[in-house]
Amino acid sequence: MITEIAEIEVKPGMEANFVSGVESCRPIFARAPGFHGLELHHSIEHPQQFLLMIKWESVAHHTEQFQKSPDFTLWRAAVGECFADRPKLHHTQTVVVGVEQA
Q: Distance between CA 67 and CA 44 in Å, rounded?
């Protein structure tokens, strides 16, 4: 399993639109082959910056299947107008997991 991390900067005043766009697209991701979940994080220090973290079975599930599907077009139509710049993408593998102590 891999994690796609998308660093996204949105246009000023578009933060709520972006969040609602991501929320509305959850079913699009849920039906994508190899999809295992997503999280959207909003920067406290930089309110126009977000991190979208998506779990995929493999990089190919993201780049070869989802990005080349009609659903990717729906995703970009829902959130693309919010982008201040092109998202920066990273594909990562988890190598250390911490456990919260009580």
A: 29
Q: In what order do the strands lie in the sheet with 88-92?
A: 35-42, 49-56, 2-9, 88-92
Domains in the chain (CATH in brackets) are 2-92 (3.30.70.100)
Q: How far is CA 72 from CA 9, 16, 35, 47, 97, in A?
A: 19, 21, 13, 25, 30
| Residue 99: per-residue pLDDT | 85
Q: Residues 59, 27, 50, 45: is their CA dihedral positive or negative?
A: negative
12 near 61, Cβ under 8 Å? no
Each residue's pLDDT tens digit, 3-54: 999 999 999 999 999 999 999 999 999 999 999 999 999 999 999 999 999 9
Supply the pLDDT for residue 4.
98
DSSP β-bridge partners for residue 88 = 7
